[in-house]
Design brief:
7-stranded mixed beta sheet, 2 domains, about 15% strand, alpha/beta, Rossmann fold, globular
């Protein structure tokens, strides 16, 4: 079984926290392999003193909705101040960091650029550099392994759902992402990554031997994480991604979609590793809450073969073609970039879908990913 960074820390890397006042960026979904919350591991350790908590999107309790503003609170379980990094500030301020000797980050990434924990980690590194604080990142597996998809996003499309220079599916762990971000920082930061033991880049989550704990409210299953780099793109449109159901990002639909027709057309494209079936659902939250939606549920038939981004693009193109009178990209305020473009990482994909040419979008993907592989080689920790 793979050994998590937090377990390696307490077994053999205590020097990074010995005798120090610790600020911990994490939430109650982060556990060790025995399902003990990481926060409790630090609370029960006599070698250091946990004095502050910092919560990413969804908060320390991992209960807030996607995009929901989270306020400062005193954590009822630990009695510690819980600062929000998804409220008035997304980067820790100097005041938030006062009174600690080291900032420890233990957050799960799910292998995709849109997942905000990597940006929280990057901003924490920037804050530590500014404050002159050491930072320790406790590594966790990338649940969808080493495969990469898409294009590294140019700087002008950077946002909190997109770290510049990272492709849609990046193939790195959180510790490696931290090292990659460190390599491009203007100011130096004292970064220590406590690595995993026994993890190989080729592993999917089911091969780690670890229990799957949902790291965010709509990260439901390992299968969902494999589809997310493609299906999350629908969040920039007026189509439901199944939020408010038991299968978010596996089901795609709307009241105006014919799921049987959509499934037939999508399956005819023979996208590798995935098949669609018609489905009906009524989400209790988010887009079309309380309305009956029709669409498809995507089922993974070969986790090694699936190209999630291609899957999402093909499905987007079919929906846009079949339902041109109903489908639309979300509108934006004047001067702002469409949310779809922030997810995609450019405006080319939206234009290609509008023109009916989305199937050619990934034509030069291989060359772009080879360039990214060269850029991140020094940040990689695992074979």
């Amino acid at each position: 079984m793979v050994k998590l960074g937090v377990e390696v820390l307490f077994e053999s890397e205590r020097k990074t926290i010995h005798g120090r006042r610790v600020g911990l960026v994490s939430n109650y979904a982060m556990t060790d392999s025995r399902l003990t919350p990481v926060i409790d591991l630090f609370l029960g350790d006599s070698d250091c003193r946990l004095v502050k908590l910092y919560g990413p999107e969804h908060g320390v309790r991992n209960s807030a909705k996607e995009g929901e503003h989270v306020d400062f609170a005193v954590d009822r379980h630990s009695g510690l101040p819980a600062y929000s990094l998804y409220g008035d500030a997304k980067k820790p301020t100097l005041a938030m960091l006062s009174g600690i000797d080291v900032l420890v980050i233990d957050l799960q990434d799910i292998g995709c650029r849109y997942y905000t924990n990597m940006n929280t980690t990057a901003l924490c590194l920037d804050a530590c550099a500014q404050a002159g604080l050491p930072c320790v990142v406790l590594d966790r597996p990338n649940p969808i392994g080493a495969s990469r998809e898409g294009y590294a996003m140019p700087a002008e499309f950077a946002s909190f759902v997109g770290m510049r220079g990272i492709p849609n599916r990046h193939g790195l762990t959180m510790g490696e992402l931290a090292r990659f971000h460190q390599s491009g920082m203007a100011a130096p930061v004292d970064l220590t990554v406590v690595p995993l033991k026994g993890w190989r880049r080729s592993m999917l989550f089911g091969e780690t031997g670890l229990p799957f704990v949902s790291p965010s409210p709509n990260t439901s299953t390992p299968e969902m994480t494999l589809l997310y780099p493609g299906t999350c793109l629908f969040e920039g449109t007026n189509v439901s991604v199944g939020r408010g159901t038991g299968r978010p990002f596996e089901m795609i639909g709307a009241p105006w979609i014919d799921g049987h027709a959509l499934a037939k057309r999508f399956n005819a494209l023979a996208a590798p590793g995935v098949a669609a079936r018609p489905v009906y659902f009524s989400p209790h939250d988010s887009v079309y809450a309380g309305e009956l939606c029709e669409g498809v549920q995507l089922h993974i038939t070969d986790a090694r073969a699936i190209h999630a981004l291609k899957t999402g693009i093909l499905l987007l193109q079919e929906v846009a073609f079949l339902y041109a009178g109903d489908f639309r990209f979300l509108s934006v305020q004047s001067g702002a970039r469409p949310f779809f473009d922030l997810l995609a990482g450019d405006d080319r994909l939206r234009a290609a879908i509008i023109d009916g040419a989305a199937r050619s979008y990934l034509t030069d993907e291989s060359e772009a990913l080879s360039q990214f592989a060269r850029q991140v080689r020094d940040a990689e920790l695992y074979d």
